[in-house]
């Protein structure tokens, strides 16, 4: 499905450092603003113990985890919406993503330059929010000028409806709020879906802290937590520089040991992926056999044919039915044959809503 999360924030707050914890690609992270210009793209595999358990049953030739793409975008500054800094190009990079990971500098360090001279994550957040909102306002206003005439003459019902929604967006953005606070039903959302507003994307805040604050945060984190409590957003505390060092260690055991030394059970990568899954309302289904055990990401509520379409469009086009085994049945009974004998294979049609952990076998004909 190629879901993509974009990392945004002011220059030099640790975006590339976070990216380096997440992906195997190595982005240049350095102590100067605008170190990143071209976006770095990384693919992170989604860790899932269930995939390994299934693989231990089927012993396939290939084990394929599902993935999320992460883009490390250039730092934004005040005036970006008007072309300052790296301006518009970089806003275009954000537009292409499904969700935003907003990195906030929550560590003191006199040796690391802050573009605004002091550590203040709240101010930083507002600068970024404002630039994104201004860009959205521009998008909304240009659309309004296109539909205004038609809406006012009253002949076109949907033009009127679109105009009303756009006005609602404009009002919200003018109040200094993000588009995501506007509540629209599914139908209305479709009418303006092609706007791709930047501040309508789900957001995950990452407080980038020093090593000592990795577990319980610090005063900056408290400020951020308080500021976003009314937003429908997730927040994570990650000591990005420390975790980037940890990813350099060779073995999984070494990395786990280091994490435990600083008081963490799970790495920032794992926590971030879990949050991204929650934020984007994602779930996983599996396919498994002697050839391959594989995880697939889908949006909660997806029906069987569309879930099949994630594997291949032919599966959706020629969908006949799905055979579904629950994860617990599969692992308890130990094989597809045993599940069949015990009547644990559900035969489901087009209306079946796929559930997290389902083991799917699609029957299709094209
Ligand atoms: N938690 C942290 N504690 C201390 N130093 C950190 C932390 N996170 C990042 N740094 C350091 O801050 C500097 C800037 O980091 P990085 O290059 O990742 O920033 P960036 O946001 O990608 O900047 P740019 O927008 O310029 O690309 C680097 O020297 C990095 O090692
Ligand atoms: Mg960078």
- The H/E string reads EHEHEEHEHHHEHEHHHEEHHEHHEE
Number of domains: 3
CATH class membership of the largest domain: Alpha Beta
Structural class: alpha/beta
DSSP strand content: 15-25%
Termini separation comes to 22 Å
Widest sheet: strand ordering:
2-4-1-5-6-7
| Major β-sheet annotation | 6 strands, mixed
Name the ligand types.
Answer: adenosine-5'-triphosphate, magnesium ion
| Total DSSP helices | 14
* Topology, number of strands: 12
At the fold tier of CATH, the topology name of the largest domain is Rossmann fold
What's the overall average pLDDT, rounded? 89
- Spans with pLDDT under 50 lasting ≥5 residues? none
The CATH homologous superfamily of the largest domain: P-loop containing nucleotide triphosphate hydrolases
Cofactor: Mg(2+)
Domain TGS: 281-364
Family: Belongs to the TRAFAC class OBG-HflX-like GTPase superfamily. OBG GTPase family. YchF/OLA1 subfamily.
Domain OBG-type G: 3-258
């Amino acid at each position: 499905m190629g879901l993509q999360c974009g990392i945004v924030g002011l220059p030099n707050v640790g975006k590339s450092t976070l990216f380096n914890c997440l992906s195997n690609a190595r982005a240049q992270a350095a102590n100067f603003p605008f170190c990143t210009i071209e976006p770095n793209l990384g693919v992170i595999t989604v860790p899932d113990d269930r995939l390994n358990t299934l693989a231990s049953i089927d012993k396939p030739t290939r084990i394929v985890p599902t993935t999320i793409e992460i883009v490390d975008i250039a730092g934004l500054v005040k005036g970006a919406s008007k072309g300052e800094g790296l301006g518009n190009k970089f806003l275009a990079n954000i537009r292409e993503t499904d969700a935003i990971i907003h990195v906030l500098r929550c560590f003191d360090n006199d040796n690391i330059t802050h573009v605004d001279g002091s550590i203040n994550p709240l101010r930083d957040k507002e600068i970024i929010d404002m630039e994104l909102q201004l860009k959205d306002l521009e998008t909304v206003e240009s659309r309004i000028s296109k539909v205004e005439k038609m809406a006012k003459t009253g002949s076109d019902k949907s033009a009127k409806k679109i105009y009303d929604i756009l006005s609602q967006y404009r009002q919200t953005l003018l109040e200094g709020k993000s588009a995501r606070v506007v509540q629209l039903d599914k139908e209305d959302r479709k009418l303006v879906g092609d706007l791709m507003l930047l501040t309508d994307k789900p957001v995950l805040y990452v407080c980038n802290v020093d090593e000592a604050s990795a577990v319980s945060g610090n005063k900056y984190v408290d400020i951020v937590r308080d500021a976003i409590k009314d937003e429908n957003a997730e927040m994570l505390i990650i000591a990005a520089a420390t975790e980037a060092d940890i990813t350099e260690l060779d073995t999984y055991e070494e990395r786990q040991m280091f994490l435990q030394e600083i008081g963490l059970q799970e790495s920032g990568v794992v926590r971030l992926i879990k949050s991204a899954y929650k934020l984007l309302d994602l779930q996983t289904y599996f396919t498994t056999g002697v050839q391959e055990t594989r995880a697939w990401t889908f949006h909660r509520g997806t029906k069987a044919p569309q879930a099949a379409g994630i594997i291949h469009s032919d599966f959706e086009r020629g969908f006949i039915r799905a055979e579904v085994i629950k994860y617990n049945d599969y692992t308890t009974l130990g094989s597809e044959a045993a599940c069949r004998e015990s009547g644990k294979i559900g035969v489901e049609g087009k209306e079946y809503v796929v559930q997290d952990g389902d083991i799917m076998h699609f029957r299709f004909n094209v």
